[in-house]
Amino acid sequence: FAGAPFTLASYAVEGGGTKTYTKVKAMMYSEPAAWKRLMTKLVTVQADYLTAQARAGAGALQVFDSWAGLALGREDYVRYVQPYNRMLFEMTARAGVPMINFSTGTASYINEVAAAGGDVIGVDWRMPLDWFWEQIGHERPIQGNLDPVALLAPWRELKFQIDDLLRRAAGRPGHIFNLGHGIFPNTPVDTVRRVVEYVRESTALASREKATG
Q1: C-alpha R_g of the chain
Q2: What digits encode the pLDDT tens for the residues 56-92?
Q3: Which DSSP letter does residue 79 get?
Q4: pTM value?
Q5: How far is 143 from 174, CA to CA, in rounded Å?
Q6: Which positions ≥6 away from 203 have C-beta within 8 Å?
Q7: Which residues are 175's β-sheet partners?
Q8: Strand ranges (DSSP E) for the chain?
Q9: What pLDDT score does 207 carry?
Q10: Which of 7, 29, 75, 129 could form a disulfide with 168 if both were Cys (CB 3.0 to 4.6 A apart)?
């Protein structure tokens, strides 16, 4: 995986994590030529990085845009970010493996995110999976979108959320079960193992029931 251009630009310009994104957005608005050079450079570097991962054996590649949805509205995304994300996916197509386009906080413009590229669209937990899938079209594979905090909940609550997510996926081909963002360091490994086993068992059972009518 690799960070998306805007997410990397945020860290570079802000000097670390931020809750306001004032420096990176100020640059974006006031220095368009510098913004273009920075984003183009990040695209080139990340495309090479992702391609190298594929050559080393990675069977799929994911681009994380963790901060665009928290910092930008639809119009700013389309104007200042989407062209570079599209460029990254086009350049990385040479890797010859499936590309996952993941972002957080972008429910209000998920179609614009999907239009930037990617074979699979990864979504966060802030809207139901079936809503996201309807927006991007069921012909497009989707990844997600269990709330990572659910892994810290009692099994009864966690199981409820998993079952609800699988129900919303409705057995359609193209759903990749995953979290809606990164896993927390204090997540119990046994819980993760139990979730993986439960999802596999549940989907296998659903497939058998569907096959037998």
Answers
A1: 18
A2: 999 999 999 999 999 999 999 999 999 999 999 999 9
A3: I
A4: 0.94
A5: 8
A6: 166, 171, 177
A7: 142
A8: 2-3, 61-65, 99-103, 120-122, 142-146, 175-179
A9: 81
A10: 129
